Fold:
Amino acid sequence: MPKKIIVFGNQKGGTGKSTLAMHLIVNLLQNGNSVATVDVDAKQGTLTRYIENREATKRENPEILTPFHTPVFESEAETVTQIEQENLTNFTNLLQSLASFDYIVIDTPGNDSSLSRIAHSFADVIITPMNESFIDLDLLVRINDSTETNIKPSIYAEMVWNQKKERIMRDKGTIDWIVLVNRMSSVASKNRTELDRVLIALARRIGFRLAKGFKERVIFRELFLSGLTLLDRNVSASQVSLSHIAARQELNDLLKALNIGD
Ligand SMILES: Nc1ncnc2c1ncn2[C@@H]1O[C@H](COP(=O)(O)OP(=O)(O)O)[C@@H](O)[C@H]1O
Ligand SMILES: [Mg+2]
Structure:
C-alpha cells in the first residue's frame, strides 16, 4: 500500500475540497513524490477538469508536474447491496493497482454516497474544509447552544466515526481527521471569534484536529483554467500581487500544519 491515502471530504459543496486537493497534489509532486489522484466526484468532475487543464498547460510547459489521475463513477447495479459490493470491489481493485505510488489523493463529492463512504474508510488522513459559518459547522456537529454542553455529531461526523471503525476492523489502521476553515473573510468578526472558540472546544470531543485554510481570494478562482496552483512558477507575472504572496504564505502554513509528505 502507498505511504498515505489522503481524502478530501465534507458533505457540503463549495468549501474548497477540490481547490485544496489540487494544491496538496502539486506540493507532493514538487517534493519528488509519485502521486495518484482519484476523483470520486467524477460526475461533477472538478478535480478531473482541473487536472485536464493542467495537462493542457503542460503541453507548452513540459516542466509542469502532473499526477496519474483516475475518475471513478458510482456503480449502476440494481440493488443497494449490489451497488455497495460493486463499488467496494472496484475501489479496492483501483487502490491495489495504485499501490506503487507514494501518495493517493482522493476528492469526494459534497453529498453522501456509497463510493464516498468507501473512499473515506481507506483514508489515512481526512481533510474537511468548511466555510466560516455556523451553518457549515452544523453539518459536522449539532450544538444547541453556545455552551457546547449539549452536542451531537451530525451525519458527516457520524460517517467519519463509522469509517474510522471500518478502517480499524479492516487493518487496525487509524484515521487522522483534520478540519479547516477555508475562504476566511479578511475582516475580524464576532462570528469568526465565536466559531473559532467553538471549534477549539469541539476538536477533542469529536476527534479532529484544526488547521487554518485560505482567506477568500480571487486568485483561487482564476488558477483553475490553466490548471495551475499557487505553487507553480508559471503563474503569469501579471497575476502576482501582494494578495498572491500572502496566499502563498497561508499555503505554506497550511502544508506545515497538515504534516503530510516530506
Ligand atoms: N480561498 C478561496 N478563495 C476564493 N475562492 C475559493 C477559495 N477556495 C475555493 N474557492 C472557490 O470556491 C468554489 C468552490 O471550491 P471547490 O474547490 O470547487 O469546492 P468543493 O470541491 O468543496 O465543492 C470555487 O469557485 C473555487 O474557485
Ligand atoms: Mg469539489
Notes: The pocket of adenosine-5'-diphosphate (ligand 1) is lined by residues 13-19, 46, 110, 182-183, 214, 216-217, 220-221 (CB under 6 Å).
